[in-house]
Specification:
The structure is a homodimer. Chain A has about 375 residues and is of the alpha/beta class. Helix content of chain A is about 40%, strand content about 15%. The first copy, chain A, contains 14 helices and 12 strands. In chain A, the strands form 2 sheets. In chain A, strands 2-1-3-4-5-11 form a 6-stranded parallel β-sheet, sandwiched between helices. A 6-stranded mixed β-sheet of chain A has the order 7-6-8-9-10-12, with helices on both faces. In chain A, helix 6 links the parallel strand 1 and strand 2. In chain A, helix 2 packs across helix 3 and helix 2 crosses helix 4. Chain A starts with a helix and ends in a 5-residue tail after the last helix. Chains A and B meet through helix 1, helix 5, helix 6, strand 2 and helix 7 of A and helix 1, helix 5, helix 6, strand 2 and helix 7 of B. Strand 2 of chain A pairs antiparallel with strand 2 of chain B, so a sheet runs across the interface. Chain A binds a DNA duplex (16 and 16 nucleotides) through helix 1, helix 2, helix 3 and helix 5.
DNA sequence: TTGAAAGCGCTACCAC
DNA sequence: GTGGTAGCGCTTTCAA
């Protein structure tokens, strides 16, 4: 009764004609088996020394039958979906589309597809979404990480299971993860030094949400530059709590009410800087003559056309995405997380990498430094 | 020999202990079967009248074992992946991210995930990419369609097979497909009429690539408006071959060299209009005093901060994406394209819908009409 | 060289 | 209420 049972089942199915998967069908028409078809179609005919004639026959029939291998079935068997998920907080801000572009470009190069998950901005808990992604058996995850204990615990858990996970655009010191981020400490420092070099002594900072580590880095870089040049950073010289035009605007209004308002302002990002400029202009100040501005990111389009072209630190978001995906591909190199040869991901505990991309100062007009019209002109070809 | 064969196989597997799928494992620990676990975990315990105690036991154990249902396996069985692919030509232009956002928001609402495929701009043939997506058994496809005979033939083939496909942002008259597009004929007409109402008689158009149907619609709308008001549209009043700043710039330069240059210009999109303004300014003209501009799309960020805030026709790309996904959900309503109860998609030949979203005139400064400062102020909250 | 057999993890159906 | 069984479409070993 326990005798060669699968065989029996197989024969049975055959007799009933119930083995009509497309490969079988092709095999039947070509007068070969199921498996041979598979070998031919997957380019293993050399290794398996399958005759040319057979190959040709199989291929012709496959084409005629409009055969499309079912990757779902393959995934079930191999435990790999060749899909990664990209979880980002927003896509409307121009910075993120660039990341998406980078990730997808790199992914395509490695035969991966990208499942995009834009976790709705207000919704702080991304755990259910990530869970859904895992149920789909994505091979890896690239996340713009979010704060909040719940999320953080979830990242840690994933990592402990050995699941391939890469952070992009932010990083937590206490989570052992690979990440690609901007070198925002040095970027902000350089930006601040640029303003100092232009003769400014009273330099304010329009900060973002204090949560993200990189956000903190920008603040630290700003502080460091001031300190190294013996300048003070009065506490109320740091204003704003989000990287938006509105917050930059409001923060600047507060700065202007101080008894000693700044003569120069570093924006935590470009939007904040623009909001600041708007407030300054409305207060009757001239930019950059009365007050200078430097932004961060260079992620706003058509910058050359702005009322006052913004001097800023350029951060290459596309490159950031690309590197993140490249890192993820490495992490996914081991055995699959599930499927036939799944095994404990324990031995996947590879060394984690943190890449820092440096930003580049792009001098335009808002800072008051001498501008070459090149910057202006060269932007035409950009769009 | 053909006697109850599956049963034998099953017993065999059982005896060998080879049925260690997670559901079986849970069942074993809970003292119930495989199938019961499945029923409990999928909320069918009411219908199957499974005892509360069993339910509780199963659920507890599942949680303890960190059970994550494998949707790949489920997909193989049901023939549905609950995944749709979104194929777009570009993501760096701000218009497309908005579409992505709309699609994804709507998709999430229906339990779908979005596989993003940004077909590289230069690569005109998207057939291989679509083929790859089909091998992954996506349930449906939303495409910003591309021209070229090969692509077009492919769309037609897909549609003939009854595969759920929706176009977004463009549409072909000769392809029987559901689509969501902008009402660009009336939009361009309205924009042109706005300029006519402001007293202009010599109105030029900075056109885009003549391929897309909507592009043609914009040109047609422009023509219609002129015609209805008895105005001429000299052939060389239409310039430009792509919706980019660079092309708008170059096109405008040509317009300015004419013996009778225009006094007003309609941009095929915002970027083209901006390029035009740039050329006009460089030629020493004042905008809008010497020459008026209207754009199309309102897809550039921080518009309020531009040197000359652009009057434009606002097109809601997010809404466009959302509607496209909603349409696709409908189309996917029938039997799955593959899997157990797949059947010829022939009866899926539902009525096709074409939705046109109308654009709204947003008056700012570039057209020379009276502007309320409201427009200016209200934009602060936008970012 | 080829083909038979087993099985990836799940769901659906029926029998008890 | 519950359990047994078949099978989704593919890959991969092993036997011939």
């Amino acid at each position: 009764m326990v005798d060669i049972p699968g065989k029996v089942a197989y024969r049975y199915r055959q007799s009933i004609g119930m083995t009509a998967t497309t490969t079988t069908l092709i095999g039947r028409r070509a007068g070969v088996s199921h498996a041979t078809v598979c070998d031919v179609l997957n380019g293993r005919w050399q290794a398996k020394r399958i005759s040319q004639a057979t190959c040709a026959r199989v291929r012709t029939i496959a084409r005629k039958l409009n055969y499309r291998p079912n990757r779902v079935a393959r995934s079930l068997l191999t435990g790999r979906t060749h899909t990664v998920a990209l979880v980002i907080p927003s896509i409307s801000r121009s910075f993120f589309p660039s990341i998406v572009l980078g990730v997808e470009t790199e992914a395509k190069q490695h035969g991966y597809h990208v499942l995009l998950s834009h976790v709705i901005a207000g919704l702080e808990d991304e755990v259910p979404e990530i869970e859904a992604l895992l149920e789909r058996r994505v091979d890896g995850l690239i996340i713009v990480p979010r704060h909040g204990a719940h999320n953080r615990e979830n990242y840690r858990q994933l990592l402990k299971e050995g699941f391939p996970l890469v952070f992009v655009n932010d990083w937590f010191e206490d989570v052992p993860v690979s990440a690609v981020v901007g070198d925002d400490f040095n970027g902000a420092r350089q930006a601040t030094e640029h303003l100092i070099a232009l003769g400014h002594r009273r330099i304010a900072f329009l900060a973002g949400n204090p949560g993200p580590t990189v956000s903190q880095w920008r603040t630290d870089g700003y502080h460091r530059a001031l300190k190294e040049h013996g300048l003070a950073a009065p506490k109320n010289y740091i204003q704003g709590f989000a990287y938006t035009v509105a917050h930059g605007y409001a923060g600047m209004q507060r700065l202007l009410k101080l008894s000693e308002p700044p003569t120069a302002v570093l924006g935590g990002n470009d939007a904040a800087a623009l909001g600041g400029i708007k407030a300054a202009l409305e207060a009757g100040l001239r930019v950059p003559e009365d007050i200078a501005f430097v932004g961060y990111g260079d992620d706003l389009e058509e910058v050359w056309f702005q009322k006052i072209p913004l001097t800023t630190m350029r951060l290459d978001a596309t490159e950031m995405g690309r590197r993140a995906m490249a890192l993820l591909v490495e992490e996914m190199g081991g055995p699959p997380a599930c499927g036939r040869d799944a095994q404990a991901g324990a031995d996947r505990r590879k060394k984690k990498t943190m890449e820092k991309l440096s930003a580049k100062l792009v001098v335009r007009e808002s800072c008051g430094a001498k501008v070459t019209t090149q910057v202006h002109g060269s932007a035409v070809g950009k769009t």
